[in-house]
Amino acid sequence: MDWTKQIVRYIVVMMLQVLLFDQLQLWGACHPYIYVLCLLMMPITLPRSADMLIGAAVGLIMDIFCNSLGIHMASCILIMFLRPYILNAIVSDTDRLNEQICLRAIGMGGFIKYIGLLVVIHHLTVFMIAAWSWSHLWFVLMETVVSSIITILAIIGYNSLKYR
Prior knowledge:
71% of the residues lie in helices and 0% in strands. The chain has one domain: Arp2/3 complex 21 kDa subunit ARPC3 (Orthogonal Bundle). The chain has six helices and no strands. By secondary structure, the chain is mostly helical. The mean pLDDT is 85.
């Protein structure tokens, strides 16, 4: 694993999130959070404690830039906690030989299931904590669906271009 490439990717994606995607207001209900790409594309072989610490750090950085008081940190820790269980359910043992999670390594179906499930969990957590009320449930669900679709398409597009 080339750690310099990984760190540069993290910095670029975080800068894109803060400078570009946080400024987008598509239809008032779309907030694409592409920074989850950094967490979802982490190597499978990292220890669970490292996954959780990296998730907390990425979430904290987003909370600092978004002034969101721990919402992103809680969401990132949750998806990093659930990530190994989802990987066990979706990725076969032969696919685990490849250290990296990517479109080429696990195929389109597995990749969409993996990305889709974790992105929806992340977005639902962010929007539910931000709303902090069941009275806005329909708006939260709409926001989750629209934002998740845009985020998933962006992640698939990134992976398609990366391995072309």
